[in-house]
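JOB MANIFEST
job_type = single_chain_structure
chain_count = 1
residues = 262
[input]
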Amino acid sequence: MQSIDMLGALHALANQADEIALKFFNQASLYVSQKSDMSPVSEADLGIEMMIKREASALFPGVEVWGEEFGLQNPEAPLKLIVDPIDGTRNFVRGIPLFATLLAIQSGDEIVAGMVSAPALHERWCAAKGYGAWQNGREMRVSDGAVLAQAQVFHGSLYGNECETLPLSEMLQILSHTQRQRGLGDFYSHVLVAQGAGEFALDFGLKPWDIAPLKIIVEEAGGKLTNLDGQFSLENPNVLTSNFHLHEVVLGYFQKNSEKIG
């Protein structure tokens, strides 16, 4: 299956995920529990991932589902569907519409297709290797901004248990040199970079399912996603997405603290 053909299958899964998410969103009876890492999981998270595990094999023969809630059974599988059923669960359970289902196809070691579907925003972002990045059917491109002092920047939490790996002094230093800063967090910061609404986004404490679809969406839009050491690994929790022009400038602020940030 070509990477572009994979997007049709991802759209089909995202359509069903959107229905489940909106069924539970803003429902007073929503059941929420805490996982061992103290993060919340709702019945919507579980329902979406169970649906994807049930439907994925018919859409992607031989695929192994790697999801946030139920993990990965066969790490050696050549084709993986990486799933975050609801990215932004804390937003979801508090009635904030900034949440999305994240889907990515990994073939070998390469992410070849990705999708972010945010039903409460009526927005969907997707990309396939070599075929560009798209927002609701419109092709996306990152911004041309190359001056740090004129940059609009997005970031996640600055304090709390999500920020154990955050080098706060370096983070605040670089933010102080930009024109405008917005703490949006989760998927939204990075898709905004992809669509040209800001120059870069910084995020800390992420998991592979948080990162996988964002990489191909940002890069097919002309941008760049790496960890703060300038390399890339799904297992490294600290991520910079950018319009490419400012990537090395931002990385430079963290180089002196490279042992801490990984």
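[summary]
The chain has two domains: 3-131, 148-255.
The mean pLDDT is 92.
exit_status = 0
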